[in-house]
């Protein structure tokens, strides 16, 4: 899908160059998103399989993610300064700049989950109810991230709305897990530190969901040309109602 | 302090108008920051004094904060589209757009703390050690927010660095409180739900500190003209080392 058709006032050569720059930014954001997806996948593997040999990989990938954020942000600033984009080009650049922060912080949450999971390795908690519940939450968070990145890649309004809607489900599941963990703490006070670690992992996954919702709100802004934050899902629900 | 001296290529009339627009944006961000400061102050009052009559006020103020975010963001987008700012003007507009998200989310954390505090009213926990520790954390978070907003208002690099440095202290204090609460849960399993609520409040205050650090990193970007995120405090420490 072409990302830009607005810079028709430019001469064809400049216009082509500009399109390439925007396409490059778009590609890089998706690549950065891919790194964060991997980061989250690895964190979940450590959490569910207890494979703790992946820590160094996570640290290296975090550096790549941070570098990508700085690079893309600086590229966007340069585009704003040099190309002075308007309309949908401007929206694309601004959307990308906003998405960067959320994508990077999803990476941070993934790293946090991986660290927690490393600490839990050897606790022999496989097959336990909270481990399964965390894994379920993790699958939901990963699907939301995939959905948010796809919605951006394809400028898919319906998919963006679908991901926003899924945030409620992950919140509900998070609350169930919170109740389960609280219960276990009460029954076995000695296990409180371990259950708290799981609670932090669950919280991180819930926050990944929040950030995926943010990403999709930016995608809606990009597609619709208006800001839908703080308006409530109801008004976002049906594109036909616009 | 003049926020902009870069648009000298414009005719004097346009240049004056443009300066006024930038000044207006800057003023509105500070006003929005003031609302968030009040939101946090009220939340802390409910937390420490147990005065729960402030809930409606918090809800009303949250709407104002959300509306301010949308309005200022849209104003910035219009400035980018119409004025095509360069150099420090462009940095100011982009810095503001980034700050908005963090300021708004500090407001969200304040609201969350206020809700938790309301739930704790009547628990007769005044004079208890965690209440005092939470209050201390709250004072630190408020001071960081005040410092971050002042650093932006005055473009004060040293103050921004000072606030960034303080984030470590709030993190340390948060970890102490976490240990204290874990201990209390272990000793009195029946109090686990209450101690967890306090834990969430502490976590929110720690996150306010994180976001104040983000705000100050944006201020450094604005002042220095280069991105200091992910570079570690050491390299930010001494402006003379640049």
UniProtKB/TrEMBL annotation, chains A, B:
Signal peptide: none annotated. It is found in: Cytoplasm. Residues 30-113, 137-219 form the PhoU domain. It comes from the Bacteria. Keywords: Cytoplasm, Phosphate transport, Transport. Plays a role in the regulation of phosphate uptake. Belongs to the PhoU family. Homodimer. This is Phosphate-specific transport system accessory protein PhoU. It comes from Dokdonella koreensis DS-123.
